[in-house]
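Table 4 source record.
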Amino acid sequence: MVIKKYKWLCKTCDVKCGSLSNDIQKFSQKIEEINKKRVEEIAGVLNINLPKQLEAINLNPDWLIIVTTGSDGRLENLPCGSGIELIVYKSPDLKIPNNLEEVLKSIIWYQIIDFNKKTLHHIAWISPKLLIEVKTIRDGMSLLFHGDDLNDKSQFFPTRFLDSKVLFGSWVKYKDLWNLIIQYIRTDKKGFKDLLENFKSRRIRYHKKISENGRGRFRWEKIFHFNLDKWELYYYKDESKEIGVKMWPLRYYQYKLAYLIYKFILLANELSKEDIDELINLNKNIKTKIEYLRDKVEWLPKAEWELKDFINIYYKFLYFHLLLQRSFKSVDVKDKIVFQLDYNDRQELLEQLDFSNKILKDLKIKRNV
């Protein structure tokens, strides 16, 4: 399927792609407002209904923290886009039999789906895809992994906790989780550095290459994420390929900024209580992370207009990702969606990719921070 004309992104997001360069800030504000409202309402539903249901199966709700992460944590998901991803952190004192863990997931799942149905009249968001991971709070290291195999470095995803937003549970206990992570990083510097550099070589370099030439691999098959010589962006039906704008500039931004924030925690001469509080209270969106790093890294643009451009480039590509995702979900796609760029957008993308790639490549933590 080929898309040649810009469409309205979504009835809940009234930013038209045709005037993208003028509306990109309006778009970023709008998409954050929509996500913030949705996350707050889901948190409200869970906090009202979940305690009684947990107590009914003899689970103490005080021993659970539920967060959302990924695009929901960053407040940049399309309301009718990808399903919400949740992580349930439980105290090691809370013994959950295997069958009750599934019951716990079912209770949470029902609350989310029921919420979707009741709010569909004003929030166009309903997705059958709901990912729930239950993790036991053991130590700081385990909180940075997807799953429980801490020997599998490929499952080290520091972005998952960095992008987390509390939906249910005590904020004080959430801060305790952050302190566990910081304590682990500061006491096992060699071990954490090894994990972080492996993340850089395995993840960041992969997305850097895609951002530079548009090409990648999936199960030994060469694939195109974009081809600006043909003025085309791609979104494939096979979701396991994860083909779309998110795989090049978006992931490159997300992973590189996460790498730098954790590198700062690792290398800082000292971390005061104020430093830690600032980190814990950090808004999860990309703009705030860039501003947080502003006085901690080298090669970030100093001029306000350049910094603004660097931030807006991310949200422009986010717009294209959500536009393709929305189109993908609204039609029957046999193989892939091909988005045909016009001349002006192609020229802008070429210039902006070059600009953002150079900055992301050179960013590093200052010495003696």
